[in-house]
């Protein structure tokens, strides 16, 4: 039940020495401020790093052929082999947990370059032969036209989707590339779309300088037959590609007569594994933020507890009178605890408000900048963090007032009345 007299007494007790109260409250304010700022900074770093994945299907792996490092069934060590288009269907049939198995061919290999000609303009770009699913594994924004589809695959159309960087290099500023032709190693492809990728993985500019053509027309135009350079494999939701990787390797080894224990014959990059490591890092950073913030907050709580002990000492005579007039120990204890909780919550809320203002200012500055290639983006805290902070405040207030309250009720009325 609300008691105006009790709250007047709390306000009077805390304002009796303004300077001491403000200094005491600052410890809690600073602790909550540090906690919220650390959590927001960690979230901002996480957002920036996740932006670097560019919306990629993180539950994916990439796989390519290498040389066999062991002899097997009469076949020598060091032999080379190629994936084939039939391997793709075998993986889909035998591992139903796979969502996409996208074969891919590439001119020039990783970081390779090929002469692409359009009129009098030339450029060096990576050219990929892909299936339509690749856009769901490496998301991109189609800025004009469309991406390749299965009609292009089935009819082996010589069409191409080019990046904005390719468009800038080969076309005039106001020129529309849709419907025009480019020559890749002397083979003409009609441009049907342009794209732009997002990401800050250090290759953002290079990602706009790639050309995608249908896998079948690529194989036909550049005499690749049924061979596959490498594959992008994505697992379904609820399944981990890391757990399925062993089955994938086993099937490929069996189909290409590779020793079951030859782990060097198939190269792979497990994006999900790397993504999990990054997630683990941010969990650790969040734990460190809570640890440091709570320690700083604890120092403020100790300060409040010490001040409340001094307040109890100063009010010994008053407590003795109240006890003599019939005040119960619970009444005395409740008064001290309420003063401690009130001071803690007020100072803590001030810390939350101050940290919110700082976060808003940082976001305001970031909104004025191009953050597409930054490793820090939209620092923020969610409602759950605020609730946790308030819970910590209430518990801290109880902890800070508990010892002074227990000390107050141990004072005997006769001894208290004798105190000057």
How would you sum up this structure, described in words?
By secondary structure, this protein is an alpha+beta fold. The protein has 3 domains: 193 residues, no CATH class; 56 residues, no CATH class; 138 residues, no CATH class. It is 54% helix and 18% strand. It contains 14 helices and 13 strands. A 6-stranded mixed beta barrel has the order 4-5-10-7-9-8. Strand 4 and strand 5 form a beta hairpin. Helix 10 runs parallel beside helix 13. The chain is elongated. The two termini are 34 Å apart. The relative contact order is 0.18. The model has no long low-confidence stretch (mean pLDDT 81). InterPro entries: ABC3_permease_C, MacB_PCD, Macrolide_Exporter_MacB. This is ABC transporter permease. Belongs to the ABC-4 integral membrane protein family. It is a multi-pass membrane protein. Pfam families: FtsX, MacB_PCD.
Gist of the model:
This protein is α+β, with helices and mostly antiparallel strands and 420 residues long. The chain has helices at 4-15, 18-52, 85-94, 134-137, 150-155, 164-170, 204-207, 215-221, 241-255, 271-314, 316-324, 329-367, 383-409, 413-418; strands at 60-65, 83-84, 98-107, 114-118, 121-130, 141-145, 159-163, 181-184, 187-196, 210-214, 227-228, 230-235, 266-270. The chain folds into three domains: 4-53 and 276-418, no CATH class; 67-97 and 240-264, no CATH class; 98-235, no CATH class.
